[in-house]
Design brief:
DNA Binding (I), subunit A; globular; two-stranded antiparallel sheet; 4 helices
Length: 121
């Protein structure tokens, strides 16, 4: 844990793996757009694991506070734009998929979201 920022830090091997994503995102948090220190960033599942989505092709770097505040909501259009631009710069494919073992969870959550009344302003 980084005592200065009270954040969990990534391991060296994770930093090595995530560096292309960090550079592809122009060293910025994809949620708030502010500059990001790779060693103090967290990996965020763009589409939440709680909805059944897997890790492959579904990860970006974010500040820990941004990641915590985002929680398990789906990304906004602005966030998806950041993701698509970063993945495009790296020639990666953004293709989050639902893990077969989690399809029931995804269907349950989708049904829950559909049953809520939304008000658009």
């Amino acid at each position: 844990m980084c005592k200065k920022h009270n954040q969990n830090t990534l391991s060296r091997s994770t930093i090595r793996k995530m560096k292309p994503l960090y550079l592809g995102a122009n060293k910025r948090c994809y949620i708030c757009g502010e500059s990001l220190n790779l060693a103090e960033s967290t990996r965020d599942h763009i589409y939440p694991k709680s909805l059944g989505y897997g890790i492959k092709h579904n990860v970006m770097l974010a500040h820990q506070n941004c990641n915590t505040l985002k929680a398990d909501r789906i990304p906004t259009i602005a966030e998806l734009t950041q993701v698509l631009e970063a993945y495009d710069r790296m020639n990666w494919i953004f293709n989050p998929t639902v893990h077969p073992n989690n399809i029931w969870r995804n269907q349950k959550m989708t049904a829950q979201y559909k049953s809520q009344d939304y008000v658009y302003e």
